[in-house]
Amino acid sequence: MKPLTITTSHAPVGLVLAVSGDLDHTNAQQLRHSGQEAAAVAPGRLLEVNLNDLAFCDSSGITALIAVRNHVVSAGGEVVLVAVPANMRRLLHLTGLDQVFDIRDTVSPLTDR
């Protein structure tokens, strides 16, 4: 099991949450909390969730991603998932969530990282 790490950075278009490790029932609340903070810090802006280093995600993790999206959207913002691993993309497709989330292959060139 890889510990969950969520790193927040500022970008010209909003905020970036870089999620790495295992996202599961033991730590999904961390992602929810990070998403709520992001919506409060940058209301009405873009939240880019970088999943490049996500090793594992269970149903609690997916529920947390949905909660983050709903919270950010209710604050007038947008959520983009970037660098989504193949196994996670498949899961999002099978559940129909690929129609809910804006999913992009690469990190936005507008970010200042």
Layout: helices, strands, pairs:
Layout: E1 5-11, E2 14-23, H1 28-41, E3 46-57, H2 59-74, E4 78-82, H3 86-95, E5 102-104
Parallel strand pairs: 2-3, 3-4, 4-5
Antiparallel strand pairs: 1-2
Helix pairs in contact: 1-2
How would you characterize the overall build of this protein?
It is built from three helices and five strands; from the N terminus they run ββαβαβαβ. With 113 residues, the protein is an alpha/beta fold. The chain has a domain at 18-82: Transcription Regulator spoIIAA. The chain is globular. The chain starts with a strand and ends in a 9-residue tail after the last strand. The relative contact order is 0.21.
Q: Give the helix tally.
A: 3
Low-confidence stretches: none
Helical content band: 25-40%
- Name the beta content range: 25-35%
Main sheet makeup: 5 strands, mixed
CATH class membership of the domain at 18-82: Alpha Beta
Structural class, from secondary structure content? alpha/beta
Quaternary state of the chains: single chain
- Overall mean pLDDT: 92
User: In what order do the strands lie side by side in the largest sheet?
Assistant: 1-2-3-4-5
Supply Rg.
13 Å
- According to CATH, what is the topology of the domain at 18-82? Transcription Regulator spoIIAA
Q: What is the CATH architecture assignment of the domain at 18-82?
A: 2-Layer Sandwich
Task: Find the CATH superfamily of the domain at 18-82.
Answer: STAS domain
Shape: globular
Distance between the termini: 28 Å
